[in-house]
Write a structure and sequence with these properties.
two-stranded antiparallel sheet, 8 strands, 4-stranded antiparallel β-sheet, alpha+beta, 223 residues, globular, 2 domains
Length: 223
């Protein structure tokens, strides 16, 4: 049964790959995106790395610069032409460590419109829709292959109730070392660590505490 499940899973992966990538003319494709809301990014079709790469290694940086410039100039339709992309960064500007090469060559942070995130919707093959458009009410719910009805933000909040830390980690990658220090567990030094951010201490009054509890209860974290 396990072997059958593994074969079925592999077949499903091949079908999904063909559906998402089967329409590319790789000989003419210098860069592409998986259109994934969970990790927006653009890959360079680099020769020697990709199976059908067409971008010479010597042209890699120029191609990446061109992609970043194009993303920076992308605008929403309508009055004002708000930007679609807040930031487009080289992957080494975002990640560090041994597995940076697993990230897209260009990491994309989508802009917010009136406080709401944008949704990446896969482009149907053979269709040429507008590069950016308003979703119809029927599309708001999202779904597999139909975008997302919510997404993550880059900024986060660090909350702890220990006196072992004098400051909060500067970023998500610094959280594990901070927790290790609080638990007095040895942790290897990281030459790329960004250190610690200012830690804000404050007490909540009864009304504020009740509001937070109600919100956590609505999310299912409290009973």
């Amino acid at each position: 049964a396990q072997a059958l499940f593994r074969r079925a899973r592999a077949a499903a992966a091949r079908v999904e790959s063909a559906a998402r990538m089967g329409g590319f003319d790789w000989a003419r494709t210098r860069a592409w995106s998986e259109e994934a809301n969970t990790s927006p990014g653009v890959w360079i079709n680099l020769r020697g790395r990709e199976a059908k790469g067409c971008v010479a290694p010597a042209d890699y940086e120029d191609t990446r610069d061109a992609v970043i410039e194009a993303l920076a100039s992308w605008r929403l339709p309508g009055p004002g032409g708000a930007p679609v992309v807040r930031r487009a960064l080289r992957r080494e500007e975002v990640y560090r460590g041994r597995f940076v090469e697993r990230a897209p060559d260009v990491v994309v942070e989508l802009a917010l419109v009136d406080g709401y995130g944008l949704s990446l919707v896969p482009t149907p093959w053979g269709d040429t829709p507008a590069s950016a458009r308003a979703l119809s009410p029927e599309e708001w719910g999202g779904g597999r292959g139909r975008g997302m009805n919510g997404t993550h933000r880059r900024d986060g909040i660090w909350i702890d109730a220990t006196a072992a830390l004098d400051a909060a980690p500067a970023g998500l990658a610094d959280a594990a070392p901070a927790i290790a220090r609080a638990m007095r567990v040895a942790w290897h030094s990281d030459p790329h660590a960004r250190g610690e951010a200012e830690r804000v201490r404050r007490d909540y009054d009864a009304d504020e505490d009740a509001i937070v509890a109600e919100r956590l209860r609505a999310l299912g974290y409290l009973e």
